Amino acid sequence: MPDPNPIEHLIGLLARLPGFGRRSARRAVLKMLMQPDQAMLPLADALRAAAAAVQPCRICGNLDAANPCGICRDPQRDQALICVVEGVSELWALERAHAHRGLYHVLGGTLSALGGVGPEDLAVQPLLARIEDAEPPVREVILALPATVDGATTAHYLTDRLRPAGVQVTRLAQGVPIGGALDVLDEGTLAAALKARRAVS
């Protein structure tokens, strides 16, 4: 049941979001309540519009109001270069770095024996089908996966699955720390890591 106090209910909802605790949520709510016409009502309208319009791209899995998304529809992107990422937040991080001018593919996670995540839980088959049907043919797949045990396991699995397709498979190199997540790295680090990618052996 919602909190009968609308202020506390709003604080509780905001506090669930990443980067918000109850203290920061309380400050945000107070700021909005002080200027409801300028801060709160436009935000409510934008949230409602986004909830109704935004959806996963049927090609890459990005979130956009258009389907296919703007990246997949952009004729200036390199159609023969696909960057595979764990989630949408990593895709957005790479886009902020302006370091990748190809396409993307969102896996929706990484393989995890402990977490019970297998290949059937990820968008692996759509990636393989996409590469098989691509025109022009895909020449390179960049595995921009986290530098973790699960990320490495996923990279090895994808490399084995992609090898028969005859595409070059590369991974991010320098700049990405062990255990680091892409969406918290700065743009310069991401750009350096993409430029220094290397073939997967």
Automatic annotation (TrEMBL):
Keywords: DNA damage, DNA recombination, DNA repair, Metal-binding, Zinc, Zinc-finger. Residues 80-177 form the Toprim domain. Signal peptide: none annotated. A zinc finger (C4-type) spans 57-72. Gene3D superfamilies: 3.40.1360.10, 6.10.250.240, RecR Domain 1. InterPro entries: DNA_Rcmb_RecR, Rcmb_RecR, Rcmb_RecR_Znf, TOPRIM_dom, TOPRIM_RecR. It holds the Pfam family RecR_HhH. The keyword Zinc applies. May play a role in DNA repair. It seems to be involved in an RecBC-independent recombinational process of DNA repair. It may act with RecF and RecO. Belongs to the RecR family. PANTHER family: RECOMBINATION PROTEIN RECR. This is Recombination protein RecR. The lineage of its organism: Bacteria, Pseudomonadati, Pseudomonadota, Alphaproteobacteria, Acetobacterales. The gene is recR.
